C-alpha cells in the first residue's frame, strides 16, 4: 500500500482490556473488547493512519492465585499456560495486535513501581489500618474471594467476607458468620493490617470535567456515561492501592514486605509497559513516548462494560496524578467505546456448567471469518446480545455464501468463460452502470465514517448492502443475455462487477481478513488506501487469478450436533435446590404490595429503600435492586413480597420483608416479579 500521497493522517494508540490469564478466551470476550478494536485498527491501517494496537495478559490478582491453589501449582504455571492458549486463540481468530505482552515481565513491574513511588514520594498516598481475615494455618491475609461464610442478613452460606452477592448486603468482616478460609478450610481470625490508599475523591471534579469535554467533542457512548455518572453521584472515595499477597508487583517501599500493588491499579499500566516492550522489540526507544506522551496522539481504549470504571475513572485519575508531579505528561483516553455483554443461547457463558464455547474450541470446528462476521454483525454495542448457533449458520449460509460469495463466484465464472479470465473493457455507460459506479465510489467513505464513530455493527451491515447491490446489478444487467446480443454491454457490466468486488475486498478486510486476502489473490491485485478503494482500480486486460469457493455452507446436522452438546453431560443446566415439604412452603406468606416510595441508600451502590403498601399497613423494605431500577420508575408498581420474613437491618435501616425478583442474563441485574393492576394490595399468593 502506497501511503506517500496520504494527508491528514492520525496518530492513534489503541488498547484492548488485558484478559486474565486464568482461563480461556470465549466468544463473549471477543465481542466486548477485542473484535471491535481489531476492526477499527485494521480500518485505520488501510486508511494510512499511524497506529499501534496494544494488548497482553493480566497475570496478577486473586483469580489467578485461586486457580493455582485449586490445582496445587504455582501461579506461574497458570499464567504460562493461559497466556499461550489465549495468545494462540487470538492469533487464529485474526487479531492484529502489534504486541501481546504480559504483566509478569520486568518492564511491567518496573513501570508499575515507578508510578507507585512517584505518588508515595510526593505524599499523595494515605496509609490506613483495618481489620482483615488472616489464615493462621497458611500464614497469610485473605482477600475477599478467599473467605466464605454465612451472610448476617439473609443467611446465604456462600457470602464473601464483606459482601453478599445474593442479597446485595455490605457489612464489616467481623459481622460474617462462620467464616472459613477457602485455602485451608480453617476458621480465620481478624488481624490488623495496613494499606496505602489512592485519594480518588480528590480527582472527582477534574474527572467529571474531563469526561464531559471528551464526550462533547468525541461522542462517548451513553452506557459509558451513565456508568460514570453513577460513580460520581455516589462520590469517589479512597481506594486501597495495595494488598497482602505474595503474587504480584511488590510494593517498592520499606516496611511493605508481603504486600503487592492492587491488580486494578497496576494492570492498566500494562498498556504503557507493553508499549515500552514494543519499543524494545522494534529497537525504537522513543516509540512509546511518541504515542503516550505527545498531545497529537488519539488514544482509544476498547473494553467490556465490566471494566468501565477502571478505564474512565481510575486510570485517568492515575495519569492525572502522575502529570501533576512529573514533567513527562501522559495523554488520557479520547474515547472508551465499551460494549455490553454477549450471552450464549440466551444465558450467560458458564464453563463450569458446560454452557458456551471458547475460541480455540470453536476454531477447531469452523474457520475464523464466519465467526468474525457473525459476531461483528451482532455486537452488543448498546445492549446485551446473544450468540445463537442457528444465527451463525444463517449468517454464514445466507449472507457470506449466498450474497457475498455468490456475487464473486458468478462474476468470476462468467469472466473466465467469456473473457479469458481478464478484466473486460469498459464501454459506454447506461444509467444502471453509472448508478452502480456511484455506489462503489461512495461506500468507502460511508463505511469508514461509521467505523470512525465506533458503529461497527452498522458498518458491517452497509458492507453487506454493497454486496447485495452488486448481486442486484448483476441480475439487472443480464450478462447471460447481453453476451449474445451486445458483448460490449456485457463487458461493461462485468468490468463494474469486478471493480465492485475489489472494493468489497477492501471494505470487508477489517471484518473477514482471511477471506479478503483470498479475494485479492483471486483478483491478482493488492490493497490500496481505503479512500481510493472506491475507484475503478482494475483496468482493462488485467489478468485475474484462480477463483475458489470462499464460504462453504454449514449443514443442519453440524449445527444440531453443537446445540445438543450444550450443558451435557458434565455441566447440565438444571436447578439443584434443597427439597422442602408443603408444610415448609405454607409458612411463607407471599403478598401483593404497591411501592409508594423509593430512594437510594447512602454509601450503597446496590440498595434501595422502599415504602410499600400491603393494603392494611405500610412497611419499609431494603432491596438490592439499585443497579436494575431507578427509584422514580418503581413508584406505583405492584410486586410480590415475603410478608412474614423476620425483620433485619441493612446499612442501619430496618427492613420488614423481602421483595421478589428474578435473575436476568445481564450481569448484576434483576427483574421484579410484577403483578397485574387488578389484584388488590395485601392479596395472598397461592
Give the secondary structure arrangement, pairings included.
Elements: E1 11-16, H1 27-46, E2 50-57, H2 62-71, H3 75-93, E3 99-102, H4 106-121, E4 126-135, E5 140-141, E6 147-150, E7 177-181, E8 189-198, H5 204-218, H6 222-234, E9 239-240, E10 242-244, E11 259-261, H7 263-266, H8 270-282, H9 287-292, E12 297-302, H10 308-325, E13 342-344, H11 359-365, H12 368-377, E14 385-387, H13 389-418, H14 431-452, H15 456-477, H16 479-485, H17 487-508, H18 513-523, H19 556-565, H20 582-586, E15 590-600, E16 608-613, E17 618-623, E18 638-642, E19 648-650, E20 653-655, E21 658-659, E22 661-663, E23 670-672
Structure write-up:
By secondary structure, the chain is α+β, with helices and mostly antiparallel strands. It has four domains: 11-123 and 200-339, Rossmann fold, CATH 3.40.50; 126-198, Methionyl-trna Synthetase, domain 2 (Beta Complex); 382-532, Isoleucyl-tRNA Synthetase, Domain 1 (Orthogonal Bundle); 582-672, OB fold (Dihydrolipoamide Acetyltransferase, E2P) (Beta Barrel), CATH 2.40.50. It contains 20 helices and 23 strands. A five-stranded antiparallel β-sheet has the order 17-16-15-18-21, with no helix packed on it. Helix 2 crosses helix 3 (75-93) and helix 4 crosses helix 8. The protein is globular and about 90 Å long. 42% of the residues are buried. Mean pLDDT is 91; it is low at 1-7 and 569-576.
Amino acid at each position: 500500500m502506497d501511503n506517500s500521497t496520504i494527508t491528514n493522517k492520525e496518530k492513534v494508540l489503541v488498547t484492548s482490556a488485558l484478559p486474565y490469564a486464568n482461563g480461556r478466551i470465549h466468544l463473549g470476550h471477543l465481542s466486548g473488547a477485542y473484535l471491535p478494536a481489531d476492526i477499527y485498527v485494521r480500518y485505520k491501517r488501510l486508511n494510512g493512519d499511524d497506529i499501534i494496537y496494544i494488548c497482553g495478559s493480566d497475570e496478577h490478582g486473586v483469580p489467578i492465585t485461586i486457580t493455582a491453589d485449586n490445582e496445587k501449582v504455582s501461579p506461574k504455571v497458570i499464567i504460562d499456560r493461559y497466556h499461550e492458549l489465549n495468545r494462540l486463540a487470538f492469533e487464529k481468530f485474526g487479531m492484529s495486535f502489534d504486541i501481546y505482552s504480559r504483566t509478569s515481565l520486568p518492564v511491567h513491574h518496573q513501570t508499575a513501581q515507578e508510578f507507585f513511588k512517584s505518588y508515595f514520594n510526593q505524599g499523595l498516598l494515605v496509609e490506613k489500618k483495618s481489620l482483615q481475615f488472616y489464615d493462621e494455618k497458611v500464614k497469610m491475609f485473605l482477600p475477599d474471594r478467599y473467605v466464605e461464610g454465612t451472610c448476617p442478613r439473609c443467611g446465604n452460606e456462600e457470602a464473601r467476607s464483606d459482601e453478599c452477592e445474593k442479597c446485595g448486603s455490605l457489612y464489616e468482616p467481623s459481622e460474617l458468620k462462620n467464616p472459613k478460609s477457602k485455602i485451608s478450610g480453617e476458621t480465620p481470625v481478624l488481624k490488623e493490617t495496613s494499606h496505602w490508599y489512592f485519594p480518588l475523591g480528590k480527582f472527582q471534579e477534574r474527572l467529571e470535567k474531563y469526561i464531559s469535554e471528551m464526550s462533547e467533542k468525541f461522542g462517548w457512548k451513553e452506557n459509558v456515561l451513565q456508568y460514570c455518572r453513577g460513580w460520581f453521584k455516589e462520590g469517589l472515595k479512597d481506594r486501597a492501592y495495595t494488598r497482602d499477597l505474595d503474587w504480584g508487583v511488590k510494593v517498592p517501599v520499606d516496611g511493605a514486605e508481603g504486600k503487592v500493588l492492587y491488580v486494578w491499579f497496576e494492570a492498566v499500566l500494562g498498556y504503557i509497559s507493553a508499549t515500552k516492550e514494543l519499543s524494545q522489540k522494534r529497537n525504537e526507544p522513543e516509540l512509546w513516548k511518541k504515542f503516550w506522551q505527545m498531545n497529537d496522539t488519539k488514544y482509544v481504549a476498547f473494553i467490556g462494560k465490566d471494566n468501565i470504571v477502571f478505564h474512565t475513572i481510575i486510570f485517568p485519575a492515575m495519569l492525572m496524578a502522575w502529570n501533576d508531579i512529573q514533567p513527562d505528561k501522559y495523554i488520557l483516553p479520547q474515547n472508551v467505546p465499551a460494549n455490553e455483554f454477549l450471552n450464549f443461547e440466551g444465558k450467560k457463558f458458564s464453563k463450569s456448567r458446560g454452557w458456551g464455547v471458547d475460541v480455540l474450541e470453536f476454531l477447531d470446528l469452523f474457520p475464523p471469518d464466519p465467526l468474525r462476521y457473525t459476531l461483528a454483525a451482532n455486537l452488543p454495542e448498546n445492549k446485551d446480545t446473544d450468540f445463537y448457533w442457528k444465527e451463525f449458520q444463517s449468517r454464514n449460509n445466507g449472507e457470506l455464501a449466498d450474497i457475498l460469495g455468490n456475487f464473486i463466484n458468478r462474476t468470476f465464472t462468467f469472466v473466465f468463460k467469456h473473457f479469458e479470465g481478464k478484466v473486460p473493457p469498459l464501454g459506454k455507460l447506461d444509467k444502471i452502470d453509472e448508478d452502480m459506479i456511484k455506489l462503489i465510489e461512495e461506500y468507502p467513505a460511508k463505511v469508514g465514517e461509521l467505523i470512525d464513530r465506533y458503529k461497527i455493527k452498522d458498518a458491517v451491515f452497509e458492507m453487506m448492502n454493497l454486496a447485495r447491490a452488486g448481486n442486484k446489478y448483476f441480475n439487472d444487467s443480464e450478462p447471460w443475455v447481453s453476451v449474445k446480443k451486445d458483448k460490449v454491454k456485457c463487458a461493461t457490466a462485468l468490468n463494474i462487477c469486478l471493480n465492485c468486488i475489489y472494493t468489497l475486498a477492501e471494505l470487508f478486510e477489517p471484518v473477514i481478513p482471511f477471506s479478503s486476502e483470498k479475494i485479492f489473490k483471486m483478483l491478482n491485485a493488492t490493497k490500496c488506501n481505503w479512500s481510493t478503494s472506491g475507484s475503478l482500480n482494475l483496468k482493462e486486460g488485467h489478468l485475474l487469478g484462480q477463483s475458489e469457493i470462499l464460504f462453504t455452507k454449514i449443514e443442519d446436522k453440524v449445527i444440531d450436533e453443537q446445540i445438543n452438546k450444550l450443558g451435557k453431560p458434565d455441566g447440565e443446566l438444571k436447578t439443584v435446590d434443597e427439597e422442602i415439604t408443603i408444610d415448609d412452603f405454607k409458612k411463607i406468606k407471599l403478598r401483593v404490595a404497591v411501592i409508594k416510595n423509593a430512594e437510594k441508600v447512602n454509601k450503597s451502590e446496590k440498595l434501595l429503600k422502599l415504602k410499600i403498601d400491603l393494603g392494611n399497613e405500610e412497611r419499609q423494605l431494603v432491596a438490592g435492586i439499585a443497579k436494575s431500577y431507578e427509584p422514580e420508575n418503581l413508584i406505583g408498581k405492584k410486586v410480590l413480597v415475603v410478608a412474614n420474613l423476620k425483620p433485619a437491618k441493612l446499612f442501619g435501616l430496618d427492613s420488614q420483608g423481602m421483595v421478589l425478583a428474578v435473575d436476568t442474563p445481564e450481569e448484576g441485574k434483576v427483574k421484579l416479579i410484577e403483578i397485574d393492576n387488578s389484584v388488590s394490595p395485601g392479596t395472598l399468593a397461592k
